[in-house]
Design brief:
The longest helix has 17 residues. The protein is of the alpha/beta class. The protein is built from 9 helices and 8 strands. Helix 4 packs across helix 5. Strand 2, helix 3 and strand 3 form a beta-alpha-beta unit. It has an 8-stranded parallel sheet. The two termini are 19 Å apart. 39% of the residues lie in helices and 17% in strands.
Length: 229
């Protein structure tokens, strides 16, 4: 079942890529979101071709990390509290949710302690939803500059979460604007940044996100079915 659903998602990704404008040429990385799904389901997805796993919570990820028995790239996609920075840099390859200077400095400090340069994305709250984390667009530039200056972080791009509209077409202008911002920051003369990832789109809206320029999508329910609580 998981392998079949994964194939369906991969086919939809390819179809969405074909609908892009010619200027958007990057491939799309699928991050399989395994929040509230067990290790057996994760192994099934990985054995069917998944290479990147996304987790929302540190504690849940830690237990799975120790027992999974598969080599994957680990993405932290959920809100990260500063007091969990130590665990985050230990377990995750790419952290999508840097949204404050305080968190950036904490991650830099903890990464430095283990001799790691931590790849990160800055989360943008473009819709200014109070229920979501992320830096507002007008405050983005100073945070990007700070992350770039921190010696144990490597800025790799941006992440956003669109509002959960009933009509998913309402997401399109936001995703389009995020792509414009992403393309714009590529022109900034950063010191160490490697701007390559635009992470946006989840199970309900990833096709539109890809059409508008996402190159990482975070898909859980469409692969694994409803979450197991």
């Amino acid at each position: 079942m998981i392998a079949e659903k994964l194939q369906e998602v991969e086919e939809k990704i390819e179809a969405a890529k074909a609908r892009r404008t010619p200027q958007i040429t990057e491939d799309v990385q699928l991050v399989a979101v395994t929040k509230n799904h067990d290790v057996a389901a994760m192994r099934e997805a990985i054995d069917a071709g998944v290479t990147d796993i996304g987790e929302n919570r540190i504690q849940e990820a830690m237990g799975k990390y120790e027992t999974l028995g598969r080599q994957v790239t680990w993405h932290l996609i959920g809100h990260l509290q500063t007091n969990k920075a130590k665990q985050a840099v230990k377990y995750f390859d790419l952290i999508h949710s840097v949204d404050t200077p305080h968190l950036a400095r904490a991650l830099d400090k903890e990464a430095g302690k283990i001799g790691k340069v931590q790849d990160v994305l800055v989360q943008v709250n473009l819709a200014k939803e109070e229920s979501k984390s992320g830096v507002y667009e007008e405050d983005l530039q100073p945070l990007l500059q700070l992350v770039d200056e921190l010696p144990h972080l490597r800025l790799c791009g941006l992440m956003c979460i669109a509002p959960n509209y009933d009509d998913i077409e309402k997401c399109r202008p936001l995703f389009r604007r995020m792509r414009e911002i992403f393309d714009g920051i590529k022109d900034i003369p950063f010191q160490t940044a490697n701007i390559k990832y635009l992470s946006m789109g989840m199970s309900h809206d990833y096709e539109i996100a890809i059409e508008e320029g996402a190159n990482i999508v975070r898909v859980g329910t469409a692969i694994f079915g409803p979450r197991q609580y």
